[in-house]
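Researcher: Let's continue the batch. This sequence belongs to DUF4281 domain-containing protein, and it's 144 residues. Same format as the previous ones, please.
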Amino acid sequence: MTAKLLFPFANYLAMLGWILLIFVPKWKLTKYISGFAIMLMIAVLYVYLMISSWGVTDGGFGSLEEVRRLFENDKSLLAGWVHYLAFDLFLGTWIVHHAQKHSIHHLLIIPALILTFMAGPAGVLLYWLIYLAAKKKQKELSLF
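Model: Same format as before. Here are the structure tokens for DUF4281 domain-containing protein:
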């Protein structure tokens, strides 16, 4: 399969996970669909892309120029994108479950989820700030 065909598949799959996390976080299947089934499919896609693009470019991780060359191939570029999709969705799933565990109202974390979807680490930072503010009053800080 070509990267051009797989790109929308990966995006729709991740979007389904985000929709579940944002709109139905307490549905009993959200955890299994978003946190397991979708992550498994994305992981399989990632492994396929990595194997099928291995050695196609002379890129690497030793310098910015090597990383640039690494992503000159469409399948390598898509593998990098899928890597982002997978980890951001994993972080979103973790945020939802951590917030539920610590009784943080879901409406408070939606901005952090949206920011995690758009810019992973910035969304996690926002969640931590929300969490710290919510727990400051309760004095029940538990990082994990």
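Researcher: Any comment?
Model: Residues 3-138 form one domain.
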